[in-house]
Amino acid sequence: MLLKLLALCLFTFLIYVPIAEARIRHYKWEVKYEYKSPDCYKKLVITINGKSPGPTILAQEGDTVIVEVTNKLLLENLAIHWHGIRQIGTPWSDGTEGVTQCPVVPGDTFKYEFKVDRAGTYLYHAHYGMQRESGLYGSIRVSVPDNFKEPFAYDYDQSIILTDWYHKSTYEQATGLSSIPFVWVGEPQSLLIQGKGKFNCSSASLTANTCNTTNPECSPYTITVIPGKTYRLRVASLTALSALSFQIEGHNMTVVEADGSYVEPFVVKNLFIYSGETYSMLIKADQDPSRNYWMTTNVVSRPPNTTQGLGFLNYYPNHPRRSPPTVPPTGPIWNDAAPRLNQSLAIKAHHDFIVTPPTTSNRVIVFLNTQNRINGYVHWSVNNVSFTLPHTPYLIALKKKLHHVFSQTPPPEGYDFVNYDIYNVSKNPNATTSNAIYRLGFNTTVDIILQNANTMNVNNSETHPWHLHGHDFWVLGYGEGKFDMNKDPKNYNLVNPIMKNTVPLHPYGWTALRFKADNPGAWLFHCHIDSHFYMGMGVVFEEGIDKVGELPSSIMGCGETKGFGKP
C-alpha cells in the first residue's frame, strides 16, 4: 500500500512540475530621430534607445514578448511590424498601420504583446508609410526549446542585417512618387552591413561636418572569429529597393535555415537575398589566420550605381580594424538572372523537418504585377488594381462590421491570361485604385500565383520580394515566362517544399505559393520594396474574422474608431 502511495505521489509530481517554463521577455523602447552618420553622411535617423539598428530581441520558442514603444518622433506617427512572427491569437499586434491597428501618435506609448511560437531568425521594422528605411529596424532571434537538437552544429551565433541607404528623407521620396511629373527615388547612395557603410564623401561638394569618412560611426562592421570554430551567421535583408548578393572572401557558406525553416543544406559562394528574407549560414574559420577577410554586399537585378557594402571578418588575434591585404571581391554579374533563379530552386525543406503541403487547393488566385498610370500618376498594381489603405484599419472594420469604410466589391482573381503580353509595355497602362480585400474561407487551402511582366519601360521587368503577414507558405515552384495553368501545376514540388514568409518574383517569371487560411485576422500580402508598396503593390486577406477575440482599445483612435473602447 505504501509503495502504491509513493508511486501516486511521484506521478502527481511529474504532472504538476513543468520541465521548462515559458518566460516573458519585456522590452521598453523610446523611438526618436537623432543625427547619425551610418555611411559617413550625417542625416536624421530613427533610433530605438539611441541605436540603429535597434536592440536584438532574444527569446526562446514559446516565450511571450512584450515591447512597450514610446513614440518620441515629435511630428510623426509610427507602427512596428514583427516580421515572420505569425501572431496566432494576437492579430492586433502585427503592427501594420491601416490593416491591424491605428498608428501610434507622437507622445503615446503602445504595448505590443505576442508569443514567439517557433524558433528561427526574424525581424522587426517600421510599418508606417516608408518609415522603415529611416533606420527603424532590428533582429529577432528565437532559440530552440531546451533539449531540442538542431540538425547542424555551431560554436557561435551572429546576426547581420543588410540594408540600402538613401540620403534623401522619406518625405522627399514619397513626395516625388506622388507627383506629376513622376520623380523616381533613384538608386540608394550606400549599402549598410549591420548599420555601417562608407559613402564616398569626395564624390560631392560636401563639408567635413556633413560627410566625414573618419567618423567612427561608419567604420566597417566587423565580426571577430576564432580560428577553427564554426559560426552561424543569421543574415537578413531589409533593403528599401535593392536585391543583394552577400559574400565572404575565401569562405564557403552553407545555408541551413530560411525564414525560420530548416533547409536541406547547400553550399554557396555568394548568397542572393531579397528584402524581407532571413537566412542562417554556417561558416568555418578555416582560412589563413594571419589576416582578415572582406565581407561584401552588392546590388543585383538593377544597374549597380550604389557603393559596395564592406565589412571585415576578423581572425583573432589580428586587430579588428586591420584591412585585408586584398582588393574587395566583386559580386556576381548584376543582370545574370539564372544564378538567382537556381538558388531559389535549390531551397528545399530539410529531410527531417518536412511539413507536407495539402495535395490540392480550394482556390487559386493569380496576381499579375504591373506598373501603371492612374490619372497621370505612376502606380504599381496587382491585376490592374492599385491598393490603397482605408482610414479605418481592416481588422477593426471587419470585427465591428463597418462595411462602409472600404469597398465591398471583390477584387479580381486573375487577368487576361490569353492576350496579355508580359514581355512588352502594356498597350493600355491605365489602372484603377481600390481598398477592397480578398475574403478567404477559414481553414481552406489557397494557391497564389505571382506573375511578373514588363514595366512601363521597354525591356524591363523588376524583381519583387513578396511578404505574407500572419502565415508561412509552401513555395511550390518558380518558372520563366507566363504561368500555364494547365501544365505548370503538374511540376509543383509537393514532396519537400520549403516554408517561407517572403519570396522573390523574378523578372519575366512566376512564383507559386500555397498556404492554409488558418489564422483568424486581416493580413497584408505585399511587395517588400518600400516604394512599390507605397505606390500600391499589395493586397489584404481576411480569414476567420468571427474567431478573433475582443480587440484591445489601444489599436483604435483613427478613422471611424475614434472613441471606440472608451467609456
Short account of what is shown:
It is found in: Secreted. The chain is mainly beta and 567 residues long.
Spell out the blueprint of helices and strands:
Blueprint: H1 2-16, E1 24-36, E2 43-48, E3 57-60, E4 64-71, E5 80-83, E6 109-115, E7 120-126, E8 137-143, E9 156-165, H2 170-177, E10 190-193, E11 221-225, E12 230-237, E13 243-248, E14 253-258, E15 261-268, E16 270-273, E17 278-284, E18 293-300, E19 309-315, H3 337-346, E20 363-374, E21 377-382, E22 385-387, H4 394-399, E23 432-434, E24 438-440, E25 445-451, E26 464-468, E27 473-480, E28 499-500, E29 502-505, E30 509-516, E31 521-527, H5 530-534, E32 538-543
Parallel strand pairs: 1-4, 3-8, 9-12, 11-19, 20-25, 22-23, 24-32
Antiparallel strand pairs: 1-2, 4-6, 5-7, 7-8, 9-10, 12-17, 13-16, 13-18, 14-15, 14-17, 18-19, 20-21, 25-30, 26-29, 26-31, 27-28, 27-30, 31-32
Structure notes:
It is built from five helices and 32 strands. It has 567 residues and is mainly β. The strands form seven sheets. The protein has a six-stranded mixed sheet, with no helix packed on it. It has a six-stranded mixed sheet with strand order 21-20-25-30-27-28. A hairpin with a 2-residue loop joins strand 20 (363-374) and strand 21. The protein is globular. The model is unreliable at 1-19 (pLDDT under 50). One of its GO terms (cellular component) is extracellular region.
* Low-pLDDT windows of residues: 1-19
Number of helices in the DSSP assignment: 5
Lateral strand order in the biggest sheet: 10-9-12-17-14-15
The total strand number stands at 32
- Beta fraction of the residues? 35-45%
Quaternary status: single chain
> Mean pLDDT score, rounded?
95
Share of helical residues: under 10%
Categorize the overall geometry.
Answer: globular
Mind describing the biggest β-sheet? 6 strands, mixed
Please report the distance between the alpha carbons of the first and last residues.
61 Å
Q: Class by helix and strand content?
A: mainly beta
How many whole angstroms does the radius of gyration measure? 24 Å
